[in-house]
Amino acid sequence: MENFTFWSPTKFVFGRDTEKQAGALAVEFGATKVMLVYGGGSAVRSGLLGRVRESLECRGIDCVELGGVKPNPADDLVYRGIDLARHEGVDMLVAVGGGSAIDTAKAIACGVPYEGDFWDFYCGKKVVEKALPVGVVLTIPAAGSEGSGNSVITRLDGLVKLSLRTESALRPRFAVMNPELTFTLPPYQTACGITDMMAHIFERYFTNTQACEVTDSVAEGLLRTIMTQGKKAYDKPCDYDARANVMWAGTLAHNGICGTGRREDWASHFMEHEISAVYGVAHGAGLAVVLPAWMQFVARRNPGKVAQFARNVMGVEPTPDLLADALNGITRLREFFRSIGMPATFGDMGIDSPDIDRLVEMLHLHKGNPIGGYERLSPADTHAIYTSML
Ligand code: NZQ
Ligand code: ZN
């Protein structure tokens, strides 16, 4: 096990009716004027936005609203949000929604006190030193942004989707998590969320660092839980306990705990971000196609951890043949994704003739060469993986 620092300062308030505590939490973290950041309307239609606003105003907090965040959020709304926040003297951002609303709020939060272009942080030119505090009312368990220090934004000029990782500056101060708010999620979004949280664990589980048994156990337990409870939530959208388990698992998948003591991978995420940047597919759906293809490729070179996953998570009976066990586990993973309606190929995502040369070129331009930790992947390798997804 390697040395590590684990930093997860977010105050999580979990359970029924917890959105009513948003006002008290905002006061606790020093807000006087809040910008509410939300998406395309689900939070308005459900009445949630109104309830959160009321909870804030009851505590004497002024509110301004910034709606219209799109999935795979873009920089245009971030610039508008920065201008509005400065003009209105906002001192806290509260995102009501999922990864897209939260990541937009985080981008505005670091952009407001910075004199230059907020994109400097995303393209690696500058490190975030100051940011306004961010709070979250979560409506979709998926991206894990409620507990992460990360934010992913697409620059429309050139369709460049980049993730900013900070250790502490962009971790939300509080996250309100009411599983009942997720009852209205369409099955497709539920499934995308399940896939994304599994991917966040895979990116940390597939490592060559040895002797991380405690971290492996947390990761394997979470993966098994996400599959059983996720399938229940997919089949019965109003099953509170299934929704609650999935919601909390989504946070634990991405707040850093599954990476403690070891090197991480992230090749699958980098490969997926290129797809969702150009073709606009949901991040989780893209991952359902990338993950098994990536696993199959790396298992042929380095089957050990994939076989462990197959045996400990997918219930494959151990044999002396590591590769055979690994491939068996991948087949079962594909079956699971199919059972929750996730795509398996580019074609299933509606991308009939993907420009693989361009995906590979952009991937390595943005993320370097080679990429990945479990296996180091060259452009020829990533080209082969994308091609296997046709
Ligand atoms: O926009 P509205 O109308 O709210 O609809 C949303 C959206 O269409 C809908 N939705 C959310 N909650 C709902 C609901 N519909 C009905 N009932 C509810 N309760 O779901 C759709 C997807 O929302 P979005 O926020 O885009 O989903 P998600 O949380 O999956 O976020 C995806 C974004 O997060 C990034 C992804 O790349 C993508 O851009 N990620 C962010 C990470 C981070 N910050 O740490 C890590 C992840 O790996 C990921 O890359
Ligand atoms: Zn993800």
TrEMBL record:
<protein>
    <submittedName>
        <fullName>Iron-containing alcohol dehydrogenase</fullName>
    </submittedName>
</protein>
